[in-house]
Design brief:
single chain; elongated
């Protein structure tokens, strides 16, 4: 067999797997871009240290560069001379670094601000379908003794002597 025949079978399997993986990919079209490209082609960040960004990463070793994961980070430091970001992953409680110049140009990473493009008014708590937290309501008839005919209560406990 030739190398090309083996590779074709593997690529078909990869294509099926990419479709499943892409279906789990979140839609980031409503978020603002985190970088603007200058006249000289160098991306410039639109955020500062202390803000949160979203990075959509891709697998660069596989054909077609399928989606790998999407992670939200807190930016700790921005080095514009070298194009480095020092990031804090709050979910995993660990540090991460990203080279945004090669991430955008070479690897096809997508950097977005956590702020959305358009502001949609938030739903009021009464409009949401979420359950309210707290103590459940107590039904009205629990704990009351039903009355007998004639409006007398029935006796409870030990019978009285001498009656």
């Amino acid at each position: 067999m030739r190398d090309g025949e083996e590779l074709e079978g593997k690529v078909e399997w990869v294509d099926e797997d990419m479709g499943i993986r892409e279906s789990r990919r979140p839609d980031l079209s409503s978020y603002e871009d985190a970088f603007e490209v200058d006249w000289d082609g160098v991306p410039r960040p639109l955020f500062q240290a202390g803000e949160r960004i979203i990075i959509e990463k891709r697998m660069t070793l596989m054909p077609g560069r399928p989606w790998l994961n999407t992670v939200t980070y807190m930016v700790e430091e921005v080095n514009q001379e070298e194009g480095l970001l020092k990031l804090w992953n709050e979910d995993l409680q660990q540090w991460d670094r990203s080279h945004y110049i090669s991430g955008i140009k070479k690897h096809g990473f997508l950097y977005k601000l956590l702020k959305k493009k358009s502001t949609v008014p938030l739903a009021q708590p009464s409009q949401t379908t979420e359950k309210k937290r707290g103590r459940p309501f107590k039904p009205e008839n629990v704990g009351k003794v039903p009355l007998r005919e004639g409006g007398k209560k029935c006796g409870r406990g030990r019978p009285k002597r001498g009656v």
